[in-house]
Protein: EFR1 family ferrodoxin
Amino acid sequence: MEHEEFDYCFYFEDGKPDAYRYCVAFEEGHAIYHRFTIEDYEEFGFRKGGNDMKISRVWAVYFSPTGNVKEVTNLIAKKLSEELSVPLEQWNFTLPDNRKSAKAFEKEDLVVFGTPVYAGRVPNKILPWVQQGFTGDHTPMVPVVVFGNRNFDDALMELKQELEKNGFLAAAGAAVASSHVFSDKIAPGRPDASDRAEILTFAGKAAQKIAETDILHTGLQVAGNDPIGAYYTPLGTDGKPAKFLKAKPITEISKCNGCGRCSEVCPMGSVDGEDVSQVTGICIKCQACIKSCPNGAKYFADEAFLSHVRMLEEHYTDRAENRFFTL
Ligand SMILES: Cc1cc2nc3c(=O)[nH]c(=O)nc-3n(C[C@H](O)[C@H](O)[C@H](O)COP(=O)(O)O)c2cc1C
Structure:
């Protein structure tokens, strides 16, 4: 078998460092292992040391209605691309137009995959797209979740598991705290300079590990329940569940100049472009329309939603820690 036909190679230390190398070829879903003496292996022209997993491109792939996930995912992906000396590409699947056809990644891609945390999980309306919209081919990835200073609960575990079902292999992972999109009083300005420094240190370490480690046989551990737990139940100031599933943004007509920006940024395509006061489809409360309105004409008036926001402001203003995971 010619060495180009192998998917990747590695070696076991097990008391005899470098005694043998193993190369793997995937055929019809089965891994076929070939063992080489180090002499034969060198003859094949493999690189000495490391894992022989070649990365030729880094991708920043993200869903980010109000920009925090975009910023964090790009920061990690850019640092990885610099450290590994390969080009950086982006795939932003926030808008419905970019969720029309599935995207296939190759073995030599390294995909930094970012989503926000909604109710302690991957946003439930986006989960089907995470499950169906991306395929890997033993493609290394870095799952990243960004949360609004309360908790990321099982979101990172869920994102990792879902992508691993579709041919990706987690090489590192991160849960990064940000300002909460519901309130300017919760973690304002985050990610800040200190977060960015932590993120860059993590990405540098991840690049080194990716270059050195046999990803397929190591298995990344991340925080979260396995199996994944229930969605977090938002509470109101009275400590009872705050039910605002049906809440939709309201438009203050006197302030609206009909520019249509809110309709353009809605990730669900739910704001009518002709009459922006009409929310014709699902609202995921992402706040993209509210944050993007140049005239401050959009707001939520739902009492249960506002009570939840006040509860968050009362209980979740202490600085949450970022969490980073490497092999
Ligand atoms: C519907 C919804 C639910 C959220 N649930 C959580 C949560 O469970 N924990 C948390 O810490 N932040 C939560 N957040 C805050 C977001 O994770 C945070 O603001 C994130 O930065 C948003 O990402 P984006 O700026 O890319 O849109 C929630 C936000 C929304 C819109």
